[in-house]
């Protein structure tokens, strides 16, 4: 493992992003990491989950990050107990047992308002690391699972839990104003989430939910929100190189691609370097070394890390890192150039609802992550 005091070596890591498959099991491009941003099924029945999880487990990736979406009704136990009778079920459903299908998978990291550090370990892979936060929650506009009231204290608590050192944020809901426009020209993303993303400045955020707005927007953050009143300096809308041809839908954020992402990530955080991998969860073990190690972080871990960041800001005479929708100070490890950009990916696979079925290509992201 590299010294904490030496410059971090980085290598290209290919992240395959998909969301809103709704029981579809498309062929996936090759990559190092797979991210599924929810709505794996139509209503979260056990038979649907088993089919989709079998597809995910067979997929050849070192790490697989999965969250639920509003359609995974049985995975939200309180919601299912209150509203489950509104749906027809092929057989009686057990929310606890259904969740275990994902929680106990030997190759899937299932996140539900939780963060984890991932260490890719394949001898033929990039051997990179990243911290990811995942949440299935969406603003409460209809009667679906994992709902929360938009704009209120519940939303602030939810998105304030994203640790400041996070490299990748995976949510089912889009952030407000970014790849969230419906066919009715409505913006349906979460306003509190976009403010949290400005605080954290992840390298990549992956979501879905709004099928018709599948795409990528590269956001340059504003460092002077308090004086200028805006979170974002500029937006670069991705042109899909795979549209209408046999090419991949590739987003190249590497130096070799000619325009590297202006974001160093959170890999300078001490928590990115575990004292011992003996405490990590080995994933994808197939008769040899694990293909990845996963360290799951509790809310206490996140709160402790955020507290350290706040103390550092306060000692420096600055404003503490964001604790609500109207605070926009930067975490102590973010300078004017260190974490300026975030790539926002709406990875919906199924097209707009209604009419003939339409399916979008899977989004492939090449990004440089720190080697461990």
UniProtKB/TrEMBL annotation:
Question: Per the record, which residues fall in region Disordered?
Answer: 257-280, 299-332
Q: Where in the sequence does UniProt note compositional bias of the Low complexity kind?
A: 267-280
Biased-composition ranges, Basic and acidic residues, are: 299-309
At the top level, the lineage of the source is: Eukaryota
Q: Name one GO molecular function term.
A: hydrolase activity
- InterPro entries recorded for this chain? Calcineurin-like_PHP, Metallo-depent_PP-like, UPF0046_metallophosphoest
The residues covered by the Calcineurin-like phosphoesterase domain are: 14-213
Protein name, entry field = Metallo-dependent phosphatase
Species per Swiss-Prot/TrEMBL record: Lophiostoma macrostomum CBS 122681
């Amino acid at each position: 493992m590299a010294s904490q005091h030496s410059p971090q070596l980085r290598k290209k890591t290919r992240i395959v992003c998909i969301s809103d498959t709704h029981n579809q099991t498309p062929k996936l491009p090759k990559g190092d990491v797979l991210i599924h941003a929810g709505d794996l099924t139509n209503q979260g029945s056990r038979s649907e989950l088993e089919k989709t999880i079998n597809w995910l487990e067979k997929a050849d990736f070192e790490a697989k990050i999965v969250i639920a979406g509003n359609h995974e009704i049985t995975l939200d136990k309180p919601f299912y107990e209150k509203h489950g009778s509104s749906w027809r079920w092929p057989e009686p459903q057990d929310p606890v047992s259904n969740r275990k299908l994902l929680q106990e998978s030997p190759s899937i990291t299932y996140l539900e308002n939780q963060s984890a550090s991932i260490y890719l370990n394949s001898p033929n892979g990039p051997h990179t690391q990243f911290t990811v936060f995942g949440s299935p929650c969406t603003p409460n506009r209809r009667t679906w699972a994992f709902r929360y009231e938009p704009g209120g204290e519940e939303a602030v608590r939810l998105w304030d839990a994203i640790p400041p050192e996070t490299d990748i944020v995976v949510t089912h809901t889009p952030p407000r104003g970014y790849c969230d426009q419906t066919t009715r020209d409505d913006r349906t993303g979460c306003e509190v989430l976009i403010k949290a993303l400005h605080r954290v400045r992840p390298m990549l955020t992956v979501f879905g939910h709004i099928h018709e707005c599948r795409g990528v927007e590269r956001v340059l953050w504003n460092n002077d929100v308090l004086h200028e009143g805006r979170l974002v300096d500029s937006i670069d809308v991705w042109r899909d190189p795979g549209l209408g041809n046999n090419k991949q839908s590739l987003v190249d954020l590497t130096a070799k691609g000619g325009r590297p992402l202006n974001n160093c990530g959170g890999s300078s955080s001490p928590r990115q370097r575990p004292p011992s991998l003996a405490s990590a969860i080995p994933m994808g073990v197939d008769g040899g070394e694990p293909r990845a190690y996963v360290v799951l972080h509790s809310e206490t871990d996140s709160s402790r890390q955020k507290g350290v960041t706040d103390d550092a800001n306060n000692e420096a005479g600055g404003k503490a890192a964001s604790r609500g929708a109207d605070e926009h100070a930067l975490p102590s490890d973010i300078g004017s150039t260190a974490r300026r950009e975030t790539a926002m990916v709406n990875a919906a696979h199924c097209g707009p609802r209604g009419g003939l079925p339409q399916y979008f290509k899977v989004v492939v992201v090449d990004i440089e992550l720190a080697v461990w």
